[in-house]
Amino acid sequence: WEGEWGLSSYGGEGEEEEQEEVGGASSESLSALCQAIFVEAFSTRAQGGREWYQFLDRGSKIIVEKLFANRYSPLFTSSASRSLRKQIESGGLETDEFRVTVMGSEVKTFYEVDETELSLNFQVPPLYPLQVIEVHVPSCRMGVNESQWRRWILAQTTLLRQGGDLVDAVHLSKVQVERHFQGIENCFICYCVFHSSSKSLPRLACHTCKNKFHSACLYRWFHTSQKSVCPLCQSLWTTDL
């Protein structure tokens, strides 16, 4: 964590003898260790970090917010943008139809099909990752009805709240639109093509009505309803999960 994150070494040699020591370690090295753990926690477990932040009292929240605003959020934002740019440069995201533009803390995606261009934008908030990346839809929504846009936004929001990062969100945006124009139908439980956590497509079909569902959504439906029937036509479900 040295260098980019501005964290000094917490296990190196050459500590000055006059530094205060606690349990054999200097206060400076312990401080650096705490900062490294703090950054690591939000880098790998952002959802857990946000939950911890929500349980703080108001005074502690103000301290944490100032710390992020002045030091960590700009670094997290820069790191997220850099990771996305690497994915773009590697050829893993963009296609002839799908393009991505990164402008600081703002990311714009464009999907062009049959002379129609769809756009979905992402804004990294000032206190990221204390705050979740925001999803914005332009006023012009040609080619897709309002209910479909709402389902896409819901899937994006769920993904980001559960710890998904900027690369995950852009990739989901690409898959959502591609599957839509390829004629792949939504899961009729969560109303999304792409499952927010497993990232799978709806593949389990009812033998009666032929509608398809994500396996995770269908399992949850069976568990909560205590019924082994199709969520739509109510026929007995005969396909194994």
TrEMBL record:
MF terms from GO for this chain are: ribosomal large subunit binding; ubiquitin protein ligase activity; zinc ion binding
User: What is its subcellular localisation?
Assistant: Cytoplasm, Cytosol
Instruction: Specify one Pfam family.
Output: UBC_like
Q: Where is this region: Disordered?
A: 1-25
Catalyses which reaction(s): S-ubiquitinyl-[E2 ubiquitin-conjugating enzyme]-L-cysteine + [acceptor protein]-L-lysine = [E2 ubiquitin-conjugating enzyme]-L-cysteine + N(6)-ubiquitinyl-[acceptor protein]-L-lysine
Which Gene3D superfamilies does the UniProt record give?
Zinc/RING finger domain, C3HC4 (zinc finger)
- Which pathway does the UniProt entry assign to this protein? Protein modification; protein ubiquitination
SUPFAM superfamilies from the entry?
A: RING/U-box
Looking at the record's lineage, which domain of life comes first?
A: Eukaryota
| Enzyme Commission number(s) from the entry | 2.3.2.27
What InterPro entries would the database entry show? LTN1/Rkr1, LTN1_UBC, RING-CH-C4HC3_LTN1, Znf_RING, Znf_RING/FYVE/PHD
A GO CC term attached to the entry: cytosol
Q: Which family does it belong to?
A: Belongs to the LTN1 family.
Q: What is this protein called?
A: E3 ubiquitin-protein ligase listerin
Q: Which organism is it from?
A: Paramoeba aestuarina
